[in-house]
Amino acid sequence: MLIVxxxxxxxxxxxxxxxxxxxxxTPPNSIVLLDNISDSIEVLKYTQREGVxxxxxxxxxxxxxxxxxxxxxxxxxxASIAKELQSIAQxxxxxxxxMVEISDSSEIESYAKMGIxxxxxxxxxxxxxxxxx
Length: 133
Prior knowledge:
The chain is α/β, with parallel strands linked by helices. 34% of the residues lie in helices and 22% in strands. An 8-stranded parallel sheet has the order 1-7-6-5-4-3-2-8. The relative contact order is 0.21. The model has no long low-confidence stretch (mean pLDDT 95).
């Protein structure tokens, strides 16, 4: 299981972006974070073409399948569909990892028991204010 954003474990942050120009302001080899597929399709095509590591929040299974096909590294699932999505990802041998955002480390065990690939804690998410400095 991957844990992103825990102070005990070294991690790269996820840099929340909205445009291709935002990518250029993030540190080299960053993982960029997009909020949804429908508003981000051109950015996703760019990240796939340029080999930029990407995380994407999805709302449904269809979006997760597209995310996988667009070479998204971390598919961030709502808790309500995470277990089902993890099963689909394993069945279709996704290269992407299924992740769930959690509020604190007390939630890690329950997602581990479900077999979810990983969790993301709030400290992992970097906003434009964090990386534009």
